[in-house]
Amino acid sequence: MPFVDAEAVSKREYDVIVVGSGAGGGQTAYTLTMEGARVLVLEAGRKYDPTTETAMFQTPDMAPLRGTDTPEKPFGFYDATVDGGWQVPGEPYTQASKDKSQRFEWWRARMLGGRTNHWGRISLRNGPYDFKPRSRDGLGFDWPIAYEDMAPYYDKVEMLVGIYGSNEGLENTPNSPDGCLLPPPKPIVSDLLVQKHSAKLGFPTIACHRAVLTAPLDWKNTPAKLHPGNTAAQEIIARDMRRRSPCLWATPCGNGCSTRSNYQSTTVHLPPALETGKLDIVTDAMVAEVMLAKDGRASGVRFIDRHSGKSMQATARVVVLAASACETVRILLNSKSAQFPQGLANSSGKVGKYLMDTVGADLQGQIPLLENLPPHNEEGASGLHMYVPWYGYQAQKAGKLGFARGYHIEFIGGRRMPQYYTTEGLEWITGGSYGAKLKEDARRYYGSMIGFAGRGEMIPNEHSYCEIDPQVNDKWGIPVLRFHWKWSEHETRQAAHMQKTFAELIESMGGRVRTPPEKDGAKAIARGGSIIHELGGALMGEDPQRSVLNKWCQAWDVKNLFLADGSPFPSNADKNPTLTIMANAWRVADHILDRMRRKEL
Amino acid sequence: MDRRTSLRWMLTAATTLQLGLLELVPAASAAGGVEAKPYGSDPKLIDPYHPGELWPLTFTSAQRELATVLCDTIVPGDATSPSASAVGVVDFVDEWISAPYPRQRKDRKTILDGFTWIDVEAKRRHGRSATALSTEQLHGICDDICYLPKAKPEFRTAAKFFARYRDLTAGGFYTTPQGRKDLQYIGNVPLPRFDGPPLEVLKKVGLA
């Protein structure tokens, strides 16, 4: 009985309650149930089935407004996310400052699978430096674990999820052991052009790592590596791996994938977890607080059933929050008791602190060499085939950059399916043509554009945090978050460096930049939160006075409370965080299983 | 992120933040007394939609006539593909300017004010309405407003209108099957494998 209604859970006993069903919650539920634990997943949004609801081959002309974004579908009509976006009706959040540069835009997805329904599938491992940034440059925080602690879990997640990529042996860009990665897709012509010219400028262009099945998963060999000694789990995952079809080299990953060829929590984690018979999922269950027992342990959670509006409770031996960094923080801060008057697990006063996003800046160029190419299919795996890892370690060491940490470069070109915006603003290059000339120009320039985006590391700071707004509640009566935000010069200078680099690349290819590279980093940098890599707020660390969690993401203050989303991250490397969220969640779940077996939880 | 095509998430993530959903109100005043309701945060994605199904179209017959003329001035038919109006782009523009969202409501004013301006300008220059102008006469006006950076000060507002209208017309046209075919787009079909670029492409760009 996998999907249950809210009333049913009060009659059932669970080992673990997991709040959230995205990358962290999905992985936690998977690991725990495959190893025999009875798990209840509470998801604030509705049930969602990508195999029946996904618009795969629909074209823009079949959608309202040609599929362009609206406030209700902020990444386009066919984006898989429903009931989500920068604003969720009835569930506001507030800003401490009216200054736009001090806002944090909070993107949420109220649906099964959470934000895994909306992402680039870019799955890069953090490198050894990324776990010890403070030791290297004196800024931010070290993780209480090292790359070696996470590496076995990166291996497992890659084998389970299916990640394409290559091993290049570059600095702080780890190789995966044999058998972990699927083959990368063939580069398209613009990839090869960038590769050629980036080499001239001294940096490498290599296969990106993305969660898309470029080949069938190795269902014969990997199950035993994922679940050693557990034949029941091996059989379940071997069967499920065979149900996932390799990529069919068409349709945008962001629409979702009805053939389960890419990663969403609902295509990879939840189906086998449900098949164990150990998992119950309640959707439309908005968790308001963690309940505290008299002995100081978490007894369960209180949630609102969105259908009835009723307040309900669920109990378990262990509570895992994986509601997204900020939502997890909100739940902790709203869980007030005599023992924890400033919020649960917050004796350090650090809950909500050190909120991070990714540094982002974009520049587009037009490359004459790519004009009027013979028509051919360039859709490939829909997202990046190649990228540029951070290459500035030596320049940084020599003091030439003016900022700490680094960024990788994402870029995409090609003769993609024409969208509304394909010809938007084309006069920057046509000089304002219309009529017969416009049709000629559209043919000429179609497929000759390349967009570059930098994705860089933000260093956690004292000015970027969230707290409970003392005045505002959501429609369920739950107090909402208020955000504070500030970039440091490390981030804004990095954004300006991105602009300069992208312009150099475009010009090196003989191209023209669409807009002049922005020299003022404060103007170049994307707004806080807008890259949707929200991390931090409940950091793991070595010191209970200065961190919220120990290295197992277990609350220092509450023994049976764990966090398994992005909230425990002490840093936000330039590597997109989802893969690390999954690997860390597996690590945390393994620890919970171990402690439960030893009757310590 | 592959939100939009895979491109969309990357190129426009920072610029398309359309905030303020909660401020949405029925578009009655903007749309001449007809209420337009947004499609909500959980629309059915599988079914095809047609302009006019979700909210009423609002062009008057005179506006529709001028919209058609302008669409076909921007994207005329030729040996390769039909004109914009022949493939439903006027309906798309009408759907757009009748929609209940902030960006579209702003465009509604730009477009309808632009229609009025162009008609007044046609009468001023040639003594007849815009839809009655010869091709040369209409092009004479369009040439003055087709490129904002070079438009004379008195034509700047009209040039902003023309840029928006051209975006809507071209965006509407190249997203139709006929528009995709015109650009020689190949894709949206399942493939057993992805082979990368053909040799002739690599040769053309000097990579083989």
Task: Write up this protein.
The complex is a heterodimer of chains A (601) and B (208). Chain A is α/β, with parallel strands linked by helices. Chain A is built from 17 helices and 22 strands. In chain A, strands 1, 2, 9, 10, 11, 12 and 22 form a 7-stranded mixed β-sheet that branches. Chain A has a 6-stranded antiparallel β-sheet with strand order 8-15-16-17-14-20, with helices on one face. In chain A, strands 4-19-18 form a 3-stranded mixed β-sheet, with helices on one face. In chain A, helix 1 (23-34) packs parallel to helix 17 (578-597). Chain B has a domain at 55-184. At the A-B interface, strand 3, helix 6, strand 14, strand 16 and helix 14 of A face helix 1, helix 3, helix 4, helix 6 and helix 7 of B.
Summed up, what is this model?
Chain A has 601 residues and is α/β, with parallel strands linked by helices. In chain A, 26% of the residues lie in helices and 17% in strands.
